[in-house]
UniProtKB/TrEMBL annotation:
SUPFAM superfamilies: Peptide methionine sulfoxide reductase (SSF55068). Belongs to the MsrA Met sulfoxide reductase family. Its EC number is 1.8.4.11. It comes from Pontibacter akesuensis. This is Peptide methionine sulfoxide reductase MsrA. InterPro entries: Met_Sox_Rdtase_MsrA_dom, Met_Sox_Rdtase_MsrA_sf. The keyword Heme does not apply.
Length: 224
């Protein structure tokens, strides 16, 4: 966690000097504004929110799926207003790095998103994903309806019964309350920063493995 944070801060200090100013601004409407900037119409789209470690990786998985229109990196599961990356990444809040997925429910189901979520991180490690350690990297599946909660719990039970993992799944299943979009330089970070040391050593191997496993779910641009 510290290495990734330090690398990010060093590489973005001069390029993103406005970030420190953004920490004191209200980003409660930032999700809609970000989507407008991306020219994405959210009409008819459903939303799903997951936390599974570094949001650079999680965002890259979901944005490759057919039926997913957009994915935003951000923070969820906490209580303080206007969380910043510096605060969250150093464990100064109760937030988890998360992604919000905007998708077409007639093209990809919530069940399939939940399946992908559990398949793309280790849900048995408490407050840790690989080199990223701390509560900010905990595994959380946020539900918006009782039906979504049942879907998540069913997937967990199926995985446990099938003994997919040697250890018990420790993913939190929590009601969705609020999602705060991360700072602009985190959005689509995997694509924009292919030479970032963390992306090269940690994210790329995971994403390539995901692409190989879920070829039938990928958008044409990601099918190799």
């Amino acid at each position: 966690m510290i290495n990734r944070t330090l690398l990010l801060l060093l590489s973005t200090f001069f390029l993103f000097t406005s970030c420190s100013e953004a920490t004191n601004t209200d980003r409660s409407q930032a999700a809609g504004e970000e989507l407008q900037t991306m020219n994405i119409d959210t009409a008819g789209l459903a939303k799903a929110t997951f936390a599974g470690g570094c949001f650079w990786c999680t965002e890259a998985y979901f944005e490759r799926l057919n039926g997913v229109e957009a994915v935003l990196s951000g923070y969820s599961g906490g209580t303080q207003p206007n969380p910043t990356y510096e605060e969250v990444s150093y464990g100064r809040t109760d937030y988890a790095e998360a992604v919000q997925v905007y998708y077409h429910p007639d093209q990809i189901s919530y069940e399939k998103l939940v399946e992908v979520f559990f398949a793309t991180h280790d849900p048995t490690t408490l407050n840790r994903q690989g080199p990223d350690v701390g509560e900010q990297y905990r595994s959380v599946a946020f539900y918006r309806t009782p039906e979504e909660k049942k879907i998540i719990e069913k997937e967990i039970q199926q995985l446990q019964n099938a003994k997919i993992y040697a250890n018990k799944i420790v993913t939190y299943v929590e009601p969705f309350k609020k999602f705060w979009p991360a700072e602009a330089y985190h959005q689509d970070y995997y694509r924009i920063n292919p030479n970032d040391p963390y992306v090269v050593s940690v994210a790329q191997p995971k994403v390539k493995k995901f692409e190989a496993r879920y070829k039938d779910l990928l958008k044409p641009a990601y099918v190799k």
